[in-house]
Design goal:
- The longest helix is centred in the last third of the chain and has 29 residues.
- The protein has a two-stranded antiparallel sheet with strand order 1-2.
- The chain has 383 residues and is mainly α.
């Protein structure tokens, strides 16, 4: 392989990162200001990420088709007479869906007003496009990583460094995909829900799928821990950064008087179950996938519950109402009588809690198995 990271890997990482920052900014904008126009900086940042992915993918496809990018010719697929990396085609399709979602979203708000749910119809089109861009980035990086596997026992230091950088790029994108996945279940994992099974069931559907996909895709020890750490680092950095900038509501009713951007809540502690599962993965390498899932999934749920449940108690206490944990930040539309502003948990019966946690374990078994299956598939991608 070339002893450097290909340019299209960097554009793939840049596109997902841009979408991630724009998505967080958009949620904070809605919690702090309200939707006053489609052309907000947050929306532009999201669409910019799609444009980067679309242009980068299109250049790779056209350049390969015309024979200008000879290094990609042998590792490409053919679609409708065009040649290019599979990930480039997926990224272009995702970018197209993102662009189409923009006027759809603008029309939706003009016709129906503000969104009640995160996943409104135009947002579902946008989410599909973002998944396409992210999946394209994963395929692009995975193919470059798999082609970098040395055929000889002796490789140069620069080649080894390039391979480690490709692994790191893939794990960073995986952490960003974790942020996107956890954002999709945001309404289930609010702080007030952290003593209910619904939160742990939702997390068990999303987190193991991403963690174990990329733990297998890279084959790197502590890969799931790196992914979990990337997710938490991004969320904490945004929690500390956004309140530094002024903002005020432009829509009513305003129940909370604010003067700055309101960030999302403190992230889920998925890094701790990731550490435990990485430890188990390294000791069950020769087991069948489903047997590994039967061991790893309960471990994930138990460790998550053991860390998140008492930490949620702390987040409800006055000791967390500071810049570090941010539990005193409330969106302008948060009614004073709701559970969140009063630092109370939404109640749940013991029977419902036990039933929900059993469902969380079952969900984690399925998503862990699926993650390992997809991860093994990514290790074979070379085009």
């Amino acid at each position: 392989m070339s002893p450097r990271v290909p340019w299209y890997v960097w554009t793939a990482v840049a596109s997902v990162t841009c979408i991630l920052i724009g998505g967080y900014w958009d949620i904070s904008w809605h919690m702090s200001i309200g939707r006053d126009s489609f052309w907000t900086p947050a929306h532009i940042a999201i669409q910019l990420g799609g444009i980067i992915a679309g242009l980068g993918g299109a250049y790779a496809i056209v350049g390969t088709t015309l024979g200008r990018l000879t290094d990609l010719r042998e590792s490409s697929v053919t679609v409708w007479g065009f040649r290019g990396p599979l990930g480039a085609f997926v990224a272009v399709w995702g970018a197209a869906a993102m662009v189409i979602s923009a006027p759809f979203d603008n029309w939706w708000h003009t016709a129906y007003g503000l969104d009640v749910k995160i996943l409104s119809p135009p947002h579902m089109v946008l989410t599909t496009g973002i998944l396409g861009v992210a999946s394209g980035a994963v395929l692009i990086i995975s193919s470059a990583l798999n082609r970098s596997a040395p055929a000889a026992s002796v490789v140069s230091t620069r080649t080894k460094t390039a391979r480690r950088m490709l692994e790191l790029c893939l794990l960073v994108v995986a952490g960003e995909i974790t942020v996107l996945g956890m954002t999709a279940i945001l309404e289930h994992s609010f702080r007030a829900n952290l003593h209910r099974a619904d939160a742990y069931r939702a997390i068990s559907i999303v987190a193991p799928l991403v963690l174990f996909t990329f733990a297998r895709a890279t084959g790197r020890r502590w890969a799931a821990t790196i992914v979990g750490t990337t997710y938490m680092s991004f969320m904490i950095a945004m929690l500390w950064l956004f309140p530094l900038f002024p903002a005020e509501p432009k829509l009513g009713p305003v129940y909370q008087q604010i003067t700055h951007y309101i960030p999302e809540e403190f992230p889920m502690l998925i890094v701790f179950p990731a550490i435990a599962c990485d430890f188990l993965l390294s000791r069950t390498e020769h087991w069948r996938r489903f047997n590994r899932a039967l061991v790893i999934a309960p471990t994930f749920v138990i460790v998550l519950l053991a860390t998140e449940w008492p930490f949620a108690d702390f987040l409800m206490s006055p000791h967390s109402r500071n810049w570090m944990f941010g539990t005193h930040y409330q969106p302008y539309f948060m009614h004073p009588d709701w559970y969140g502003p009063n630092h109370l948990f939404v109640p749940e019966t013991t029977a419902a809690l036990v039933k929900g946690l059993v469902e969380a374990v079952i969900a984690a078994v399925l998503t862990s198995y699926l993650g390992m299956l997809v991860g093994d598939g990514l290790r074979r991608v070379k085009r």
